Amino acid sequence: MKRTITAIAAAAALSMATVGASAQTYPDRTITVVVPFSAGGPTDTVARLVAEAMSKDLGQQVIVENVGGAGGTLGAGRVADAEPDGYTLLLAHIGMATSATLYRKLAYDTLNAFEYVGLVTEVPMTIVARKDLEPTDLKGLIEYAKANKDTITVANAGIGAASHLCGMLFMSAIETPLVTVPYKGTGPAMTDLLGGQVDMMCDQTTNTTKQIQAGTIKAYAVTSPARLDVLPDVPTAEEAGLAGFQVGIWHGIYAPKGTPAEVIDRLSKSLQVALKDENVKARFAELGTAPSSEAEATPAALKAKLESEIARWKPVIEAAGQYAD
């Protein structure tokens, strides 16, 4: 019996020593960042910019793998089940908070299945429409939507996507249900908006800025507290008459539960370095957003954000009654 206890203790000590040594040498191979949406979308764009900058700081390649489906929950579930060694990470947006209510059967416990690395950025949204839609300002758009609620179409990139969430919030704000048209990603939704097959959409500046600047879609408002330097002629929703309508699509990096604290600390510090990278700052600015501050790019800040956003979106989703199995 004594030998058995001694053997167990020795094995435990060896395991702890191995974990400690692994954390000290981390990283020593390629790190994969799972993006739970399709390539070329707004979240993918953010992830690739940050991954490139983190690669330089960590001294190892950080690659992006797109694992789309089920509003981002398939990719998140994959990371939740991954080895907690710091080599499989998740970069996801606000959908991490909303999926906790949207999906009746999640394969993971949103708040308890992950370790938190830090916030990356908060991207403003834009209320846009096909370029030949009749209304010329947001007030007119709201009046038009209410008068044509059974025929006006609102595109989104699928349940749980940023455009879906913003669309729900818009309908809640104007107290009018509209006809929603879900797509399998932001790309096809934007393609049909450009082609006039759908009427309007509420989506991230990372996806709409270039189209607004080119005049291929009509912009009615941005959802930020102040106008954006990259879109100076587009009023805020508050300015345009939709009081209190502010929403940003925040992004964060997560690791599987049980990832060593030393590894999380190294990743968080690397994220902070990456967000100060001049190329990241410049590209984010072009897309109408900005990197999170050093204080925001921390585990505590991301955890607090996720908790508060779950509480914020739960009543909106329940009121809309739009759930997914």
Features:
325 residues, D-Maltodextrin-Binding Protein, domain 2, alpha/beta, 2 domains, 18% strand, 11 helices
Mean pLDDT: 91
Shape: globular
Q: Would you tell me the structural class of the helices and strands?
A: alpha/beta
**In which range does the helix fraction lie?**
40-55%
Low-confidence stretches: none
Number of helices: 11
Q: How much beta, percentage-wise? A: 15-25%
Order of helices and strands: HEHEHEHEHEHEHEHEEHHH
CATH architecture of the largest domain: 3-Layer(aba) Sandwich
> Under the CATH scheme, which class of the largest domain?
Alpha Beta
Q: Remind me, CATH topology of the largest domain?
A: D-Maltodextrin-Binding Protein, domain 2
Number of strands: 9
Total number of distinct structural domains: 2
The gyration radius over C-alpha positions equals: 21 Å
Full CATH superfamily name of the largest domain: Bordetella uptake gene, domain 1
Tell me the span between the first and last alpha carbons.
51 Å
* Biggest sheet layout: 9 strands, mixed
How would you sum up this structure in a few lines?
With 325 residues, the chain is of the alpha/beta class.
Write the layout of secondary structure elements.
Elements: H1 2-25, E1 31-35, H2 42-58, E2 62-66, H3 73-80, E3 88-92, H4 95-102, E4 114-130, H5 138-147, E5 153-156, H6 162-174, E6 179-182, H7 186-195, E7 200-204, H8 205-214, E8 217-222, E9 248-256, H9 261-274, H10 278-286, H11 299-320
Parallel strand pairs: 1-2, 1-3, 5-6, 5-7
Antiparallel strand pairs: 3-9, 4-7, 4-8, 4-9
